Amino acid sequence: MNLSSEDYFRKQKRTFWKKTxxxxxxITVVGVTVLTFVFWVKAVIVEVRPExxxxxxxxxxxxxxxxxxxxxxxxxxxxxxxxxxQGFISEIVTLERSMPRRHIAISLKExxxxxxxxxxxxxxxxxxxxxxxxxxxxxxxxxxxxxGTHTLKASHPYYQxxxxxxxxxxxxxxxxxxxxxxxxxxxxLFSRPEGVPVSLNGNAIGKTPVSxxxxxxxxxxxxxxxxxxxxxxxxxxxxxxxxxxxxYQLIHKKASVDFKLTPLxxxxxxxxxxxxxxxxxxxxxSLRELIISYSKAGYSSKTIKRMFKPNQKENISLQLKPEFxxxxxxxxxxxxxxxxxxxxxQTPQAFTLKTIPHNIHLSRSGYRSIQKTIHPSRQxxxxxxETLMTEEQARLAEAPEVTKNSIGIELVLFKPDxxxxxxxxxxxxxxxxxxxxxxxxxxxHRAFYVSRMEISAGHYDQAFGRRTPASDLAVSNVTWSxxxxxxxxxxxxxxLPYFYITNGNNITGYNPQSIGYRxxxxxxxxxxxxxxxxxxxxxxxxxxxxxxxxxxxxxxxxSAKNSVATYISGYNDGYLxxxxxxxxxxxxxxxxxxxxxxxxxxxxxYTVDHKAMSNPLGGLNNTSHSGHVVKGSSWKSGTLTELxxxxxxxxxxxxxxxxxxxxxxxx
Length: 667
Description:
Oligomer: single chain
Structural class: mainly beta
Distance between the termini: 174 Å
Strand content: 35-45%
Helix content: 10-25%
Shape: flat
Largest sheet: 5 strands, antiparallel
Number of helices: 7
Radius of gyration: 60 Å
């Protein structure tokens, strides 16, 4: 059908617009697709190092994406990239779309070179060295090394070392074989004496001296002959010591000697070397003079000289004879004798005894026994002269002049003269004398300890748990019984027998033989205050002058005038009442406070007696009626009558100026 030109153009126009619209749609879709692709795909630059690896690198992608030169385009959220290069160790790296970086560097490590080597002959003692360092042992070697040139060495003690210089590239393998050649050595053997047969690995090689070529190796050498002890030796011929020299000193075979010893248990020696002293077989040197000795205490020794042949068998009997010495025993006075616990009569006596140690026991009733060990001698007479001491003498000899007991009380030893007597009390003509100070003649036979100071409250508290503000003050306000019970407590503490006999807390008697703690007797107290360590009897602790020396003790001084009936005008001792024990200088006996501080309970029950006495302790009266004697002045004493050493009081109860000191016999 023919179209008008107008229709034709209209049709063409419609066709043009259709194509234009279609093209626009296509371009838009393509553009959107390209933009979406560009937005979605992520490109990562992967740089390979070192340069030698980068030139040969091959990149393989495991995942959705592709590789273009050193760029990796990621379509998937995660992919694995493997990078491989000849001579380098491959590496796998994981790439993720979420990675913030778009550039990463991967460094490949060089692949090691491998060396394989074999030693001939095959032996586990082969050691392998690379560049002078031991890296393994055994017949074969397989080891990774750094690329480059290395020195490989194979060594074996019995072969010549072999080595080679090797150049290896990275990632390559080098195989080598070392043929080891035996060491060519020499063996030189000598002996004294010469001419003895020698075997090597069981094969005879001649008689010494021997010199022979010998390849490297370990060999067992034997030298054996009838007259000499066999020799077994191990010899190594190595590349370090190819020439081995040995010089053997052969020892003659020993003799076998059976000994018969009588009596057994002595000392057997051969050339000064000790052997067990029993019937036994000994292996002794041959072809040499031997001095054989046998001895035992109490017997004459025996010595012989012998020389034995190699392999000789011999019997030797050594029989000793008893040996005796003379011992003379004398004692003053005569005593009973025990020798090795057997009764042997009385001294003086002479004995013939074996020349061995003997225990001697000398005893007599009332005397300290003597024990000695004596060793009689055949060459001389042993004479024992001993003087036995009474128990008193022995205790005195052992007793220290000053001692300190378990709670810290210091005690001083006094030894009255047994033969001397003294007067206790005062003459009627003595100024201040009282009716109860009747003169008596007294002897003190027994040595005794006495406390240097009065007992302090602190020491007393340990026994009875009392509490005082100042524990070093002299204890006061105690009864006679409490003072006696303190003595028993201290005796128990020191494991001494009680002096006072008790029924509960009541004192019912006393044991005059006890060495336990007690109170001083009146006689002892007055002897200490008037006679001990003095040339003439003293009226006062300080002497015979009525003038009171300054600082002699804690007395009724100016400070006490408002609290006592009488005080000493112009005297000041520094204490109103009680003073710490030992605050004033000691008197001539070395004791403190016999004058002043507290008056002191003594052991004696109060009585008025005219009789002369020896070691008087007095009776034991009912303290509630008769009371006990109190000696010495106190901080309340202000008259010369009270300050006299003969002054004595009767007391039954407590007082704030009354305490005590302790004593004990030593035997």
